[in-house]
Amino acid sequence: MENSSAVVLTSPTIRTINALQTELAERLDESGNVQIDGTAVDRVDTAGLQLLAAFVRDVRAEQRAVEWVGCSDALRKAATALGLETALCLPGIVVLGGTKN
Amino acid sequence: MDLDLAQFHSSFFEESFEALDGMEAALLGLDVGAPDPERVNSIFRVAHSIKGGAGMFGFKDVASFTHTLETLLDELRSGRMAVTRDISDKLLVSVDVMRAMLTAVQRKEAVDMQKVADLQFDLEMIVAQGGAAAAAPAAAPAAAPAPVAASAPAPAAAAPAAPGVGRWSIEFRALPELLLRGNDPIAIYASLAELGKLTVTANMEAVPRLRSIDAERCFLKWTLELESDCAREQVDAAFEWAAVDCELAIKRVDAGASTPEAVAPAPSAAPAAAAPDATAAPAATGVASAPTPGEGSVAATPSAQSVAPAPANSGAAAAAKPAAAESKEAAKGGGEHSSIRVSIEKIDELINTVGELVITQAMLSELGRKLDGALAEQFAAG
What we know:
The structure holds two protein chains of two kinds. By secondary structure, chain A is of the alpha/beta class. Helix content of chain A is 42%, strand content 13%. Chain A contains four helices and three strands; from the N terminus they run βαβαβαα. Chain A has helices spanning 17-29, 46-61, 73-81, 85-88; strands spanning 7-8, 34-38, 66-71. Residues 95-101 of chain A have low confidence and may be disordered. Chain B has a six-stranded antiparallel β-sheet with strand order 5-4-1-3-2-6, with helices on one face. Chains A and B meet through α1, α2, α3 and α4 of A and α9, β2, β6 and α12 of B.
């Protein structure tokens, strides 16, 4: 299954959440695996991570894989704080019964 | 100008006794386990009013006792503590004690301060132990020789765990509005992580599908395990700003044994949004720990375990609140509307102050009516 172009995250917060939701919904409509680039994320909040987690869950529910191209410290710390690393399939996380990224 | 507040004492006593009758009736009709919130609120308001009046008139013992009672009632009405039979019994005894105190003050007689102090101690212990202490005094022999002896078992029976084994179990479900009000669980958990080792498990069952989710609202639910010997108040403080926008249950679990009496009502069922995907993992776990950040979560590899704690001033945590706050303004049209967050204590102070102003205004008006001539005009003009 081919990858589509990466979703590049910069500041997934409640301020930008509607635009991000639109973009992620479009990616959901595409076929193939999904790549997410979180290298440049410098600011993130619960709204942003909740949306990303919903996206990852919906993608995987279609038997498509999610691959992180990169993950910034800010993104990982926030995901850890909320207990969402596994749900987000962050790099270095083993998802039981799923893909090791 | 000297004001003779004594002329208002009779009104205060009359209203207080009436209010206590109402409080007693409300307590007798209280459904333990599933109390009517408005009934609990009405009971709280009685204690609050009597405390305010007693404080203003200088009845310090009454004010002190009702302050303790009010603190307990505030825990109950906020849902931080559950109404148990023992607590209900203690509240009914408190009504009797307040009646006795007010009667003694009214008649300028001595009051049995030992009895008052014992009950006040019991109430304080219930609050300190999050409700767990309530059972202890009740279990003491009814014919205990002295009040002091009767209350003595309470702290011992509900004593906190030895250092190193303190453990808090927290169920936190954000109400949808939480994020829109500028609160962010990241910052809340960062505060908790400063108290000890924090393990966070997120539950996504109620999170709608991406296409249908209202992304500005929170649908996540969390189970938190905090290893810390901190006081209950410190745990409560972390959730202070989110108190009205979440369902919260905090209980202390020591050495694997839970204390059900300390448990606030468990969060009700998740929002109506159905789990969109039965195959999706419903929960994930993370660890944020101040002293030992490297200890593991179930599904994390060693690299993922070595996650630094998220202190309050870390990038993500620090960014969370301002970002949410800014968005709130943006969502409401370029910041035309704004709001501030004020602690419940400050609101209480404000209400007390306004109440005292109203009473003082009434007293001045009463005095003004007794004046005449130029003095009356001067008085009316302020």
